[in-house]
Design brief:
This protein is of the alpha+beta class. It has helices at residues 4-56, 137-140, 143-183, 201-250, 257-285, 297-305, 327-344, 387-392, 400-410, 456-461, and strands at 71-75, 81-84, 105-110, 113-119, 128-134, 293-296, 313-317, 319-325, 349-356, 359-366, 414-418, 425-437, 448-451. Among the domains are: 4-143, YNR034W-A-like (Profilin-like, 3-Layer(aba) Sandwich); 290-470, Histidine kinase-like ATPase, C-terminal domain (Heat Shock Protein 90). It contains 10 helices and 13 strands. It is rod-shaped and about 155 Å long.
């Protein structure tokens, strides 16, 4: 049966039927035993009275009897009625059962008559006194069972009706939610399911469904904007590449093939950078698991600061902090922040690594023009590049900071732009696994120093495909394997 309302009603009714049947049977037996016990008690009292009078020979004829025990007989050993009450005159013996000598009192039921038989004495020829009364009609005509059965049926019908109504009322919001959900399509995610009053499970379900729909609407809208922006960003280098190739074909005598090839390589490099960043974003948004390991964040920052070119970076490590995460992804974040700071700094870049409130904190500060407070969140959006970033580096993809923030979130951390007296201050916070204060043997003024750019031979010797794909020159010129964070 598909209907929950019908299923719950049937189950409740069947369960209640079993319970009421047991209760009804118990009530019937209790009432029946009580009536019979009272009847046999009265009959025993009357039979005992006349049995005592028989033993002393002082029994009247006929035997006086009153309701309810109005049937009294004295029967000899041969089964002949020798005395009786007026109501029992002319009747055959009430019972043919003679109590044995060792069990002189017996309760008997003869048809609809409850009888108490008492043997006057243990002697073989002892007469027997029978005292009986008609069983109430409620017992021998089954009126009691009919009454109890009728009560059970009424209670069952009432319980089934109440269950049907209560379950139906409970499921009514579910039907409204289902109807509204059937109206929601990918093209229109603005509808929300109705929320019933109260704080029960269905109300919580409706609120959760609306929250899910809100997130889904935001995700779909974000994907639409992303697809539109990505198509626009990809169209420009593709169009430029096509124009260069067409000019080379149309004007072979006027166009230098080497210039065409060099321009095509530049355009293809930009396309490759955009596509690689898009793939990186897709993997991060899909929660693609990355290998987790313990990482000394100060050592990683110091090492990566030495790998770049251009403006020197001053690194200050205030504590040995370990975090758990993907080394390749964290290197990507550090390189993005360092290359971004070098590109926009006027004279210096400062990086500090420390510990604060259970988090490892990496702060990258440059002394450039800075970022206006209104733009501090916008720069983390995909394909967003401020005017200053376009002037300093026209080849970036505008995805570096978006990727960096996604990596931070994937590591349960944050990446924000905070206030700085001059320039921009990017702060990366990650949950720390372990931290130790630096001793005198660990550092030169708490491991503070200026990290100079690596020599070309060193960069070539230490180049790793996963790590070095984020390396850029500090001037923002030349081809890059991956686009950098753009402002």
């Amino acid at each position: 049966m598909r209907s929950i309302q019908a299923r719950y009603t049937i189950i409740t009714t069947m369960l209640l039927l079993v319970i009421l049947a047991l209760v009804g049977t118990s009530i019937d037996m209790a009432i029946r035993y009580r009536i019979q016990d009272d009847g046999f008690g009265n009959a025993e009292r009357v039979a005992s009275q006349w049995s005592a009078l028989v033993r002393i020979g002082d029994i009247p004829d006929p035997i006086p009897a009153t309701a309810p025990v109005d049937l009294v007989q004295l029967v000899n050993s041969r089964g002949v009625v020798i005395n009786s009450s007026r109501q029992a005159m002319g009747m055959a013996p009430i019972s043919t059962t003679r109590p044995p000598a060792d069990d002189r009192f017996q309760q008997l039921t003869e048809g609809s008559v409850m009888v108490m038989a008492i043997r006057v004495s243990p002697a073989a020829d002892s007469p027997v006194v029978y005292a009986g009364l008609e069983e109430p009609a409620i017992l021998h005509e089954h009126h009691l069972e009919y009454f109890i059965a009728a009560g059970v049926l009424i209670l069952l019908a009432l319980a089934a009706w109440m269950t049907w109504c209560v379950v139906g009322r409970t499921l009514r919001p579910v039907a409204a939610i289902r109807a509204r959900m059937s109206e929601i399509t990918v093209s229109d995610l603005s509808l929300r399911v109705p929320i019933p009053p109260g704080e029960d499970e269905i109300a919580l379900l409706a609120r959760t469904a609306n929250q899910t729909l809100t997130r889904l609407e935001e995700a779909v809208e974000q994907q639409r904007r992303f697809a539109s922006t990505a198509s626009h960003e990809l169209r420009t280098p593709i169009a430029g590449l096509r124009v260069q190739l067409e000019e080379a074909l149309l004007y072979p005598d006027d166009i230098d093939p080497r210039d065409t090839i060099r321009g095509a390589l530049t355009a293809s490099g930009r396309l490759e950078a955009i596509v690689n960043d898009l793939l990186q974003l897709a993997r991060l948004r899909a929660a693609d698991p990355a290998p987790q390991e313990l990482i000394d964040l100060g050592a990683l920052v110091t090492e990566e600061a030495a790998q770049g070119t251009g403006m020197p970076v001053r690194v200050q490590v205030n504590a040995r902090v370990q975090v758990r995460g993907s080394r390749i992804q964290l290197i990507r974040v550090v390189n993005n922040l360092l290359s971004n700071a070098r590109r926009h700094a006027d004279s210096r870049v400062e990086v500090s690594v420390g510990f604060e409130d259970g988090n490892a904190v990496v702060a990258v500060v440059d002394d450039g023009a800075g970022i206006a407070p209104a733009d501090r969140e916008r720069v983390f959006e995909r394909f967003t590049r401020l005017d200053d970033g376009r002037l300093r580096d026209s080849g970036g993809s505008g995805l570096g900071l978006a990727i960096s923030r996604d990596i931070a979130h994937a590591h349960q951390g944050t990446l924000l732009i905070e206030d700085s007296p001059r320039g921009a201050r990017f702060v990366l916070r990650l949950p720390a696994e372990d931290t130790q204060p630096l001793g005198a043997a660990d550092s030169d003024v708490q491991r503070t120093g200026t990290v100079k750019a690596a020599s070309p031979s060193r960069r070539a010797a230490g180049k790793d495909s996963a790590v070095k794909e984020t390396a850029v020159d500090g001037r923002g010129s030349g081809p890059r394997a991956q686009p950098r964070a753009q402002r």
